[in-house]
Amino acid sequence: MNPAVEIHNLSVMYDARPVLLGVSGVVGHGEVVGIVGPNGAGKSTLFRSLLGLVAPTTGTIRLLGGSIAAGRRWIAYLPQREVIDWDFPLVVSDVVTMGRYPHLGWGRFPGPADRRVVEACMDALEISDLRDRHIGELSGGQQQRTFLARALAQNARVLLLDEPFMGVDAATEATILELLRRLRAEGKAVLIVDHDLARAAETCDRVMLLNQRLVAFGPPAQVLTPGLLRVTYGGRLTPLESLGARGPGA
Length: 250
Known about the structure:
The protein is built from 10 helices and 9 strands. By secondary structure, it is α/β, with parallel strands linked by helices. A 6-stranded mixed β-sheet has the order 5-6-7-3-8-9, with helices on both faces. The chain has a 3-stranded antiparallel β-sheet with strand order 2-1-4. A hairpin with a 2-residue loop joins strand 1 and strand 2 (about 15-25).
């Protein structure tokens, strides 16, 4: 079986300014990979490149053994909450139904089978009772559950989760962690941006340390070390270094 994601020597520039430089890595099926680095490290740009929204300056990306265009309907994206227009007139069920659109032909509308998938995904994220609520009326945790349900409804093989734990309550965090375990068991590939290294160490199979360039990519115990964290965060003292000092999972 082909890897879920293959990135080879990826570089991206915005207005002649480098954002990613020579990044390479392979993500397998049934693997949860954490993407870690400071603000401006290129984490969101990496996701946009995988979605085909940003053209590489150099390098190639393959999804499920083929091109981004061929694999687009099999990749789902959970954006950062801050980039979503929460005033847009959508209710929860509308958002989750959007996950079915990549599987519909031109001019087709969701049918009974699609609606059953939407219902099952809302049940799985425990938001069925919110189906008619406007998304701007939801709490942070409810908003994340809604967009995670949309990703599930897409039945994607690759999921990109950009800071899914940001602004959520403990119950939603537990729900997301359980969802990650379920996706791994189903053979899905999940790439997740998370600033909490203790959680990444416990949750991810491998961690990618990124600061425009790839600093390290491997199991948490090998990657989340004081030396590599200093390189990633520019030598600045951060709370993350204490994690490396005591060891992941300690």
